[in-house]
Amino acid sequence: MLNRRRMSGWTASVVILTAVAACGREPVLSVEEPGPDSRPPGVLTIGSVSLNPAAEHDVFRPLAEHLASRLGSVGIGRGRVVVVDSLSTMVNELDAGRVDIYIDSPFPVGFVVQHSDTKVLLRRFKRGAEVYRSVLFARADRGIESLADLRGRVIAFGEPFSTTGYLLPKAALVSDGFKLVRFEDPAANVPEDEIGYVFSNDAENTMVWVLKGKVSAGAVNEDYFEALAGSRVGELKILFRSKAVPRNIVCARGDLEPNVVRAVVGVLLGMDGNAAGQVVLNSFEETSRFDVFPEGGEQALSGVIELLPFVEEDLGR
Length: 317
What we know:
There is one protein chain. The protein has helices at 53-69, 87-95, 106-115, 163-175, 203-211, 222-229, 258-270, 275-283, 297-307, 312-315; strands at residues 28-30, 42-49, 76-84, 101-104, 118-124, 131-132, 134-139, 154-157, 180-182, 195-199, 217-221, 236-241, 245-246, 249-253, 290-291. The chain is of the alpha/beta class. The longest helix is centred in the first third of the chain and has 17 residues, at 53-69.
């Protein structure tokens, strides 16, 4: 069990994750300069998991400042951004009470919910999308008619922390009984009972590698599939479409003060209804709005939780 420590007074920490599997360094803290003495003393901290803390800070700082400026009634007067380098570290931060809320894609959220006292609050429409799914595709002239035909071949995934480019399709394949093995070389010889995979590190690279025959198949976000293929989309065959999963999720640690939770939720829900909020939403990776899960947060995440064991090792590094 992880040790748990609670913070005192009005201090609150809000952490937002962008998942990446890495570990071994202490959290990188970026603290806003204190403002006028008239502001409430509480601190609202927004954080992320990333190997590029400076860039990540720039992404989340406007949201931290916007929230803090509207939470004076619950004692919050300043915003802060915290960046750590692994989900395991974020679990520790949550259980220590230094993290109140984080926002991320479904697999990182599922991992943290499973390993800490964290509750799902809202969904985030990142780049306007409520949900997204993965497609696994091949060239139509390669004689690949089904997923079973991928045994003995190499496929391309995107980045190691991508939901639609890696985590979702890998989990779906492994849950269906396929044995996936990572290789560094797309030209590797793969045993007939295995599916080999390499990382292209970019969805555009994945598309190019499939079209050029460098790999036998690839996985990308379905929303980008046709745009990535362009005029050559007719040369491709979709082998598999995953189930849809939530695009992004907002969570809170279980022991966060209820009045702070209600206030944060209220601000997030109202951001698309005012000009200042819309500006911040657009700068926050083209978020269109936040809203509640109609079916409830636990139900919305249930499909991801079922697949999580098949990629948990990737997330927990």
